[in-house]
Write a structure and sequence with these properties.
- The structure is a single chain.
- The chain is an alpha/beta fold.
- It has helices spanning 17-29, 47-59, 75-87, 98-106, 129-137, 148-155, 189-199, 212-225, 255-260, 265-271, and strands at residues 4-7, 32-37, 69-70, 91-94, 113-114, 117-118, 143-146, 159-162, 166-169, 179-182, 204-208, 231-235.
- The strands form 5 sheets. A 3-stranded parallel β-sheet has the order 1-2-3, covered by helices on one side. Strands 4-7-10 form a 3-stranded antiparallel β-sheet. A two-stranded antiparallel ribbon has the order 5-6.
- It is globular.
């Protein structure tokens, strides 16, 4: 049976050992391996990092099918999915700034909590139709958010299969009313990833355990959009000396730096726990 997997990095920096682990894990978990470039953030993505992704993965001994899907070339697919959600009445415009959101959370003793801290408190969800229309007529910036509770009421109970744990009951409200699109970016990671996985026929989504919470939301989006449902396998993360997961923003050692230092592909695969 054919199982399609994928590795989907963002070209916002050089790949490190954590990326190597994820890419190798995905390649070994399936019979068909795809590379996807998640470059929707035009302010942070750089062509040189995208080139380096291809070079580093090839150096590790990986190969993938062509063509490579680049998210920036498929905004129409995400707009279409957003249109479906809007047509179902599952979205609303949000005019709150980050500062306003933080202030409301700070002033509320019962602010909803998610796995990584307070969630959006639903301020703009409570606007009247007339209030929304007036704010839209002003022409100010706004984001589009998912009305998670309304979407969950539409789908009923949902589950998904986590390879390491079996069938899990989905909690569609775990991340609250997430942003689905902004004026400058017509999609979010959450919306784009479920659309891409469906279009590319991904049967097994492999990624780090830090993204397990997102799977609850992704299962909800798949249900309301009528998309096929893959299975998931969230692998353990590589941790640095400080006990935190490796991350580009924290200066994790890049694969190309290890290569320049004389490390072989086999040595790097071993360092990534995939020897």
């Amino acid at each position: 049976m054919e199982i399609t997997t994928r590795f989907a990095p963002s070209p916002t920096g050089y790949l490190h050992l954590g990326h190597a682990r994820s890419a190798l894990f995905a390649a070994r978990a399936g019979t068909r391996f795809l590379l996807r470039i998640e470059d929707i953030d035009a302010t942070r993505c750089r062509p040189e990092f995208e080139v380096a992704i291809h070079e580093d993965l090839a150096w590790l001994g990986l190969s993938w099918e062509q063509p490579v899907r680049r998210q920036s070339e498929h905004f129409a697919d995400y707009r279409a999915a957003l249109g479906v959600l809007e047509g179902l009445g599952l979205t609303y415009p949000c005019f709150c700034t980050r500062k306003e959101i933080q202030a409301e959370i700070a002033g509320s003793p019962s602010a909803p909590q998610g796995p990584d801290g307070p969630l959006y408190p639903g301020t703009c969800r409570r606007l009247t139709p007339e209030g929304r229309a007036a704010r839209l007529a002003e022409g100010g910036d706004h984001a589009i958010r998912l009305d998670a509770a309304r979407a969950a009421a539409l789908t009923g109970p949902l589950t998904f299969i986590e390879r390491s744990e079996g069938r899990i009951g989905a909690d569609p409200l775990l991340l609250g009313d997430v942003v689905l699109a902004r004026k400058e970016t017509p999609t979010s990671y959450h919306l784009a990833v479920v659309v891409d996985d469906a279009i590319q026929g991904i049967g097994l989504v492999t990624r780090g355990r830090d993204l397990l919470a997102a799977t609850h939301l992704h299962r909800l989006l798949q249900a309301v959009l009528g998309l096929p449902v893959p299975e998931w396998h969230h692998h353990d993360l590589l941790l640095g000396p400080d006990g935190k997961r490796l991350a580009k923003r924290d200066g994790a050692v890049a694969l190309r730096a290890l290569r320049a230092a004389g490390r072989t592909p086999a040595e790097v695969r071993a360092l990534a726990g995939m020897g």
